Amino acid sequence: MTKWISGDGSRQPFILSIPFAPFVQVDKDHPRYRSLIIREKMSEMVDEGIVAPAGLIAHGRGEAFDYLMGEMSTANALRTERAAVACLLEAKHPVLSVNGNTAALCAREMVTLSEIIPARIEVNLFHRTEERVEKVCRYLEREGARGVLGRKADGILPGVASDRAKCTKEGILSADVVLVPIEDGDRAQALVATGKQVIAIDLNPLSRTAQVAHFTIVDEASRALGNMISMVPELKSDHQARKALVSSFSNKRNLQESVALICRRLQEIAAKGKS
Ligand code: ATP
Fold it and tell me: In sequence order, which residues have a C-beta less than 8 Å from that of residue 248 and are 6 or more positions away?
């Protein structure tokens, strides 16, 4: 069925040529164009079993914070992304953790980042079934991922209840740096407690994940990963710059600045009398 989503009621169609939403027609001038397209994709990914239904709620929470921050990568986010790339490049055994939402939104970016750092990819699902793990692994492999970990979980991350603790010895368990986009607080806390450096991508600077991570990238995951990919070549050849970026980074300052930015934006909007 073809869907029509129009900004001004004119029903001028814009036919998308993106692979995941071939039957959606959205007016390109619609003020929430990108958001609507991504919502369509997320609900299709639920139908395919990649995203859990509860993942849509987490997505909505992220959207709300993105809206507050102007739906763009802030200077503060870019600074953190740079420090996070430096940390990944300095790591001995970096691992990129992928859940359903991350796969649906940025499989290709995760695969590219894993190739150029280089880092292993491990699938870890909040709502884990063997079938879903297989689906997410295959989805990543279709995007070019090689050596994806997570199908055979032979390790347990201490301090996490339920199946989310399942991980691999070769991947998460032996990692020194773990990137966790769109993560929940319990698992982020448990990763920190094992002594790993944790890089979170989380639009909510107040979430438990954001608060416990060592590097909290307050940016939309696919935007953040795109930025990070573009930062790798320059930092790859500059060990001194990497060390300086990691040692001078303060996540406390980063989070304070993220919250302050939201406050400033709300004050500006209130001052203009614009709702
Ligand atoms: P916590 O357990 O860390 O306190 P939470 O209970 O909100 O947080 P989840 O429901 O698992 O955790 O949500 C995941 C987090 O990811 C939320 O903070 C949400 O704002 C954020 N998020 C959702 N979508 C995106 C996205 N596309 N990019 C970045 N962050 C996102």
Answer: none
Q: Is the CB of 207 under 6 A from ligand 1?
A: yes
The response to whether residue 38 sits with its C-beta less than 6 Å from ligand 1 reads no
Give a three-class secondary structure readout of 198-230.
EEEECCCCCCHHHHHCCEEECCCHHHHHHHHHH
Considering the domain 75-261 in this protein, what is its CATH number? Answer: 3.40.50.12640
| This model's pTM is above 0.85 | yes
Structure tokens belonging to residue 117 = 């750092």
Q: Taking the domains of the chain in order of start, what are their residue ranges?
A: 3-68, 75-261
Q: Which one, of 94, 81, 142, 101, lies nearest residue 122 by Cα?
A: 94
Q: Calculate how far, in angstroms, residue 247's C-alpha sits from the geometric centre of ligand 1.
A: 27
User: pLDDT tens digits, residue range 7-33?
Assistant: 444 433 333 334 445 556 777 888 788
Ligand 1 centroid – CA 241 distance (Å):
31
